[in-house]
Design a protein that fits this description.
Strands 2-1-3-4-5 form a five-stranded parallel beta sheet, with helices on both faces. It is globular, with a radius of gyration of 13 Å. The protein has a single domain, classed as Flavodoxin domain (Rossmann fold), CATH 3.40.50. By secondary structure, the protein is α/β, with parallel strands linked by helices. α1 links the parallel β1 and β2.
Length: 135
């Protein structure tokens, strides 16, 4: 059985609600972004990363982005998935994040999951599928 982490940053609670769906679906470890780094990432076979769109559709810059920069080069060979919520825009932050992952040798295990504001039934179903893909 794989050891799975769900690492997230949540400002309003929407991305944390998404993380909870994944955790509940597969029994993964739920870890806030500020408590995660490259050494911790090495302990896991699979990791789902969650971050909402911030500012001009970017990853959260003070906690999440530095953590992502620390871990991304060590994720090759692991099952990795991305998820997050947004309140404006069209998901550009996720497309940019996916490109950054690919440019650093990260192969995503499944399609990323985004939702506008709080997760609805459609987003929850997609998150459960994400959980199965990495679990």
């Amino acid at each position: 059985m794989s050891k799975v982490a769900v690492v997230y940053y949540s400002g309003s609670g929407n991305t944390e609600a998404m993380a909870d769906v994944i955790v509940n679906a597969i029994g993964a470890d739920k870890i806030e972004a500020e408590a995660f780094g490259a050494a911790k990432a090495a302990e896991y076979d699979a990791i789902a990363f969650g971050c909402p769109a911030m500012g001009d559709e970017v990853l959260e810059e003070t906690v999440f982005q530095p953590m992502w920069d620390d871990v991304k080069t060590g994720l090759a060979g692991k099952k990795v998935a991305l998820f997050g919520s947004y309140g404006w825009g069209d998901g550009q932050w996720m497309r940019d994040w996916e490109a950054d992952a690919a440019n650093n040798g990260v192969t995503l295990a499944c399609e990323s999951v985004i939702c506008n504001e709080a997760p609805d039934d459609e987003a929850n179903a997609a998150l459960e599928a994400l959980a199965k893909a990495i679990g």
